Amino acid sequence: MPSNKTHAIDISLRTLREWPLPLPNFDSDKELRGHVLVVAGSREMPGAALLAATAALRAGAGKLTLATAASTAPHVAAALPEARVIALAETPGGGFSIEAARKLGELAAKVDALLVGPGMQDEAASAELVRALLPRFAGCKIILDAGAMELLRPPDEPHLLAEPVDSEHFRFEEAVLLTPHAGELAHLCGQTKAAVTAEPHGAALRCAARWNAVVALKGPLTVIAAPGGELWEHQGGNIGLAISGSGDALAGIIAGLAARGCALEQAAAWGVALHAAAGDQLALRYGTLGYLAREISAEVPALLRTLAPA
User: What is the set of domains in the chain, with CATH numbers?
Assistant: First the structure.
């Protein structure tokens, strides 16, 4: 067991109830419930955008804008009528053109939380886009998931950026939330997966301090580390959550909570707990194996009614 485990706060029912979610007034409109912008998907993985965006709404965000690949945007819009859908020009590798940064930047003053990454392709294009979005969305709560975290890949992998970020010394000017699993964190910080899984608390803390980020290191034991050294952990859910699209749903839940007014670390803690509890509910209904990622977010409103009654 990692030596610093005793410093981690267990994300229990008691912890959540002592850390209540921001709740809208009875007369609040959709703007006051929070506007979330989800930048996600690709022509090969349009479903990831739908999973994340749906989860953001299920977590209580009042307004949703979804930016996705132009080749799939009309179909995504039809599948998610609650969203404003923005079509983004694509690179030959299936990512988003850097022109997307200017287009999306026009929304910055209107957005409370920004989620980038689920289902995105073209690692180099994704990293360039994130680097361009960060200053435009200064002051906004930013969650980077999956391909969006490629910004941090060590510079000895030359295909990433024209001007690579030195992940050993790079720090976000304003803290963002990163949502890697152990393999992704190892990939980003130049370690082995075995080293990360052997000491998840220490690995998350070191990366959080190095990058000025809240790091939600996902797994059967999820560890959340803040840049100031605060540490939380959650163990729960079931193996059924280890399925394609599950991480997209989790990222969307977190983004929806952040849009509602949660600090990044609170959104991560509540998001992880809700995601795990949704898996438990689905396992009771369908069995541990065989439920789908698209079913996770539908469990969230009832869980919120139980854990965070309005």
Answer: 3-307 (3.40.1190.20)
Buried b (16+ CB within 10 A) or exposed e, 189-211: bebeeeebbebbbbbbbebbbbb
pLDDT classification of 155: cutoffs 50, 70, 90: low
H, E, C per residue of the chain: CCHHHHHCEECCHHHHHCCCCCCCCCCCCCCCCCEEEEECCCCCCHHHHHHHHHHHHHCCCCEEEEEEECCCHHHHHHHCCCCEEEEECECCCCCECCHHHHHHHCCHHHCCEEEECCCCCCHHHHHHHHHHHHHHCCCCEEEECHHHHHHHCCCCCCCCCCCCCCCCCCCCCCCEEECCEHHHHHHHHCCCHHHHHHCHHHHHHHHHHHHCEEEEEECCEEEEECCCCCEEEEECCCHHHCCCCHHHHHHHHHHHHHHHCCCHHHHHHHHHHHHHHHHHHHHHHHCCCCCCHHHCHHHHHHHHHHHCCC
pLDDT, tens only, 15-53: 999 999 987 666 665 566 899 999 999 999 999 999 999
User: Taking 50 as the threshold, does the pLDDT of residue 160 lie above it?
Assistant: no
Mean pLDDT of 181-203: 92
